[in-house]
User: What shape does this take?
Amino acid sequence: MRIWVLPVLFMLTLPLPAVAKSFPWDSCMDTGLKAYQSGNYQQAERSFLCAQHFAETSNEPQLDIHLAEILTNLGETYNAEGKYHQAEALFRRSLALKDKHWGTDNPALVRDLDNLAGFYINRGRSDLAEPILRHILDIQEKNPTSNPDDIATAVNNLATSYTNTGDFQAALPLYKRALSLDRASKGENDKNIAADERNLGFVYSKLGQFDKAESDYKEVIGLDREKLGNHPQDVVSDLDNLAQLYMSEKKLPEAEALFKEVIATDEQYLGPNNPDLVVDLNNLAILYRQTNRIQEAKEIEKRADQIKLQ
Assistant: This one.
């Protein structure tokens, strides 16, 4: 799903005079950005704390906005380090500064709102993320400069939050809308279309609408193979989704064929002893047991155990 990968930090962009003005915290910010991008989060933290110190003791105009961006970068660094409470406090402080400067519905708030929502999602608190995500969608819909990708991402993220809380009825129309927006802006041959179809298939399966789920999963598999470069792990994941759906419908012969295809694909691309095969093999063993093929199940389980011991 298109949601909350590790952020790419950036400097705040404001209208500048003819000669760009330097600030006391610029050197610390530059060092912090480079350190973050290289994965050196401890150095990034020290550098952003340095920038924060200079900003908080400065008399520069528009200081609150510059400080807000420093706090956002520091918060994202804390989040990458697993310092979640510090990150949340900084996201909220940055958001308050920007809200005071620009107003509640300004697009400049989206980055911090998204950070905060992502923080809650990743901590298992989708209930706290939902109102934030609704606010983001409202801002994007009202913003005349928003592009379809911005709106589609906001719609998808809100749908994902509903999915995480088990509200599949609320998620369904949003995933449909995300698919419509992506089709209009990207055409059919795009990875986001596959992600949208995959999300719809999952929600339909949870709502017991198995025929629609099957149709969406098959569509995704077709996209994987015909239009998106036949990436093995995408194909394996989508074949497994369809196989699990067939298991739910008691279409065991169809599920068996797909589980075997998953195993063959993983063996081809990952090797015969890759740990990922353990799950594949156990899925097939479960099916064998459900069809009273106990000896075949035991043989498959034995192989899975041998892989785990390597």
In short: Residues 17 and 263 are 61 Å apart (CA to CA). The radius of gyration is 24 Å. The first helix runs from residue 26 to 37. The domain at 27-56+63-102 is CATH 1.25.40.10 (Serine Threonine Protein Phosphatase 5, Tetratricopeptide repeat).
